[in-house]
Amino acid sequence: MDAIVKNFPVLDDASGRPTQKEAEEAVRVLLRWAGEDPTREGLRDTPARVVKSYREIFGGYDLDAEDVLGRTFEEVSGYDDIVLEKDIPFYSHCEHHMVPIIGKAHVAYLPNGRVLGLSKIARVVDIYARRLQTQEAMTAQIARAIDETLAPLGVAVMVEAEHLCMAMRGVKKQGATTLTTTFTGAFKTESAEQARFMAMLRGFK
What we know:
This is GTP cyclohydrolase 1. The protein is α+β, with helices and mostly antiparallel strands. The chain has helices at about 20-35, 45-55, 65-70, 120-130, 135-150, 165, 185-190, 190-205, and strands at about 70-75, 85-95, 100-110, 115, 130-135, 155-165, 180-185.
């Protein structure tokens, strides 16, 4: 079954984004709810620190993957085989519990006359990781952004990650890894291309 890809809107002040002061007050409320005293010395500056860190951690909402992928290169000397960028580390946050997802992404595509700068692929992974996410949606979003912007012959994305919402709470199963994949174009219609993608991943272990 194909994953449902959600396009998250970029928030701005006009859309009703709270001010920094309001965000800091929300952190103080959570501290009080947890049983802490936000006025004590060790917590006095915590709300400002949390808001500052959240601005970085969730910076993906202010970025557009299509802008990052806009520049491509056509001078490839006839290269037309798989381009694979493997083991791209990322940190995201579960949209259900707002605790970390820690993992790595493997992204491949079959060029159709144009290629991407390798740093662009890693940046696209970061854009979608730095949002509240489910792993399934993030996998599909990365594939869709590259597929629609570059128009390659196919895209393959595999994401493997540990979800701390499962390790820290609930069933408390540390070390469990979740794998998700999305394939487009030739990677979806031709089993041989999927097999080559998987073989390349295994070959780099």
